[in-house]
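Hey, sorry to bother you again with one of my protein questions. I've been puzzling over a protein and I'd love to understand its fold better. Take your time with it, there's no hurry, and the full record follows here:
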Amino acid sequence: MEMVVEELEGGVTKVVLAGRLDIAGSAVIDLRFNTVSGSRRAVVVDMSGVSFIASMGIRTLVSGAKAVRIRGGRMVLVFPEANVEKALRTASIDTLIPIYHDSNAAVAAVLG
C-alpha cells in the first residue's frame, strides 16, 4: 500500500492511496494516515489507485474521518474503483464519509 500526501490551495490536504487496503495495507499506512487526519481540517482521499478494500481498510478510513471531524473539519473520498465503492456503500460508509467522482466538488465539500 502506498500513500502520498499533497497540500492543495486553501488548506486542503489530498491523500492519494494506491494498492490493497486490506490488513497488510492498512498496517502500512495506518499511523501516517491517522497523523495526517488528526492534524488537518480539510482532507480529500483519492481512492482511484485502491484495488481492494477490507474491513481493516474501512476502519482506517473511519478512524481518519472521526479525527478530522473532532477538529471541526471534513474528509471525503474521491474516485473509488467500482468494486471498492460498492464495498463502501454496502457498509454505509458513504453516510459518514461522502464519496465524489469530481475533484472540484470534493474540494468544495471539505472547504464547507
About this structure: The helical segments are 23-39, 55-70, 82-90, 103-111. Residues 22 and 55 are 7 Å apart (CA to CA). Residues 2-111 form a domain with the Transcription Regulator spoIIAA fold (CATH 3.30.750.24).
